[in-house]
Amino acid sequence: MYPTVADVLALPVVRGGGPRVVAGAEGLDGRVRWVHVAEVADIAHLLKGGELVLTTGIALPDDDEALARYVEELAGVGVTGLVVELVRHWSREVPRALAEAAAKHGLPLITLSRETRYVAVTEAVNGLIVDAQVAELRAAEQVHETFTALTVSGAEPDTVLREVTRLTGQPVLLETLSHEVLAYDAGSADAGELLRDWQARSRAVRTGERTGYDPASGWLVTIVGARGHDWGRLILVCGEPPPHRHRVVAERAASALAVHHLLAADGEGLERQAHRAVLAELLASPVTAPELAARASALHVPLTGRRLVGAAIRPRLTGVADPPGAASAQPVLRDLAEATALATRRARVSALVGCVDDTSVRALLSLSPQANPRAVLRRLAAEIRQARGSVPVVIAVGTAVTSAADAGRSLTEAGHVAAAALRQDGEPADGYHRLADVRLRGLLHLLGDDERVAAFAARELGPLLARDAASGTRLVQALRHFCEHGGNKSAAAAAAHTSRTAYYQQLARIEQVLGVQLEDPESMLSLHVALLVHDVVARSNDTDHPME
């Protein structure tokens, strides 16, 4: 907010006096809080620090010891600089004792070779200070208005951090008290470098106050929390001591984040949001950028040098009273995500956990190369079921991979396996499903996006679906019972809760509509596969009831 000594020397009214820095040049970047004209030597006790003292030297002593004491007292109270006019007392240069004392204390000593109107200097410098103070007040008002609007609107953390970077020009990060990066805005800095070795660097920074600057790291750190519950730290990467305005920005941003946290108490937490963002990018991109790996590492989930296993956890709601529909799907999945995250902590497994769609919770497990994946997954499956409580879940895993670039494939495979396993009764012995456990149904889920597979199902079942739609019959359901019971008509009729006579009539009508013989093994196999494909396609297109 205040001009430096160098700024003062650059003013025309000072340049006209022929200024020369005699000593203490290293202090020219000191801030000038005020300008004070003083001729007497006994002046230090009247000063507060930050003043630029102007003198003609006319009342200063010529004694070397007294001059040294004079400079020592000025430096002791924090004077920013001393300007001496060489006209009335000293004409060519100041005494050596004065210059040596200024050099010893690092106090800028400037001489003026020509007579200078000190009143003009004070007016010019104080005008700079007042202008700076007005600008600071306007900036503070802008900060106040900006973060008040963000707080009232319940702005997301990414939006708040973006404003911090815009107002300060510095990178900013939001982390938990356990040093997991929840959100960040790197600005013009390199995000990968910003997040490199984050945990180790962050643990080393302790300021001992709610808002403090750590000179060693160049970080301005503000505690985030409300109602006596602190849960995070906002870190402004400054590189040098920040101005007061940056502290205000950091504190107002921390307040906005704390309010958002309170308002979103019933929604998805910041940790889940951060995990979800990384999982979504792993699923969407075939190439893992270094920044993404750094983000995962900053969340305590390293992706390099590890065995990565994708997992999908879906609630099994068949038979549950009042199963949720689309409108209430997200709260169910959020609860399941928190339960899964709790289970990973109990099982001591590093994992990204989040909801990336409307059907399941995804997790990417990061295991050490020496870990036994089967033992870890069995323990984790047991912990998930215990944490979830009364609602049963389907737990599915993908193939273990060793490259972050393949993590998306393992996550996708786990999702397909979970969708296929929903129609199976019982649980595998290990407590989780793999692709090998869902067999043909799992294969069809993997191929569900292939148009040729969908065309095959439409070709096989099209006439039957059209008949049901036009006449209100349930021939497709009758065919499903027939195939699921391996062609056993009696068992199929019992499963359909239909008399054998009526059921046999339905089978005859199916053969007539499709022009096939159901007793033919190949016909039954083709129709069964077509039914499975029809289920896969219908579920992938069903956006109205994602939790079914």
**Which CATH class of the largest domain applies here?**
Alpha Beta
Look at the helices and sheets and give the structural class.
alpha+beta
CATH fold assignment of the largest domain: Alpha-Beta Plaits
Mean pLDDT, all residues: 86
Q: How many E strands?
A: 14
Strand order of the largest sheet: 1-5-4-3-2
State the distance separating the first and last CA atoms.
Answer: 61 Å
Number of domains as seen in the coordinates: 4
Give helix % range: 40-55%
Which architecture name of the largest domain does CATH use?
Answer: 2-Layer Sandwich
User: Which range does the strand content fall in?
Assistant: 5-15%
Task: Label the overall shape.
Answer: rod-shaped
The CATH fourth-level homologous superfamily of the largest domain: Reverse transcriptase/Diguanylate cyclase domain
Main β-sheet: number of strands, strand sense, barrel status?
Answer: 5 strands, mixed
Radius of gyration: 37 Å
Q: Spans of 5+ residues with little confidence (pLDDT < 50)?
A: 319-327, 542-548
Report the total helices: 20
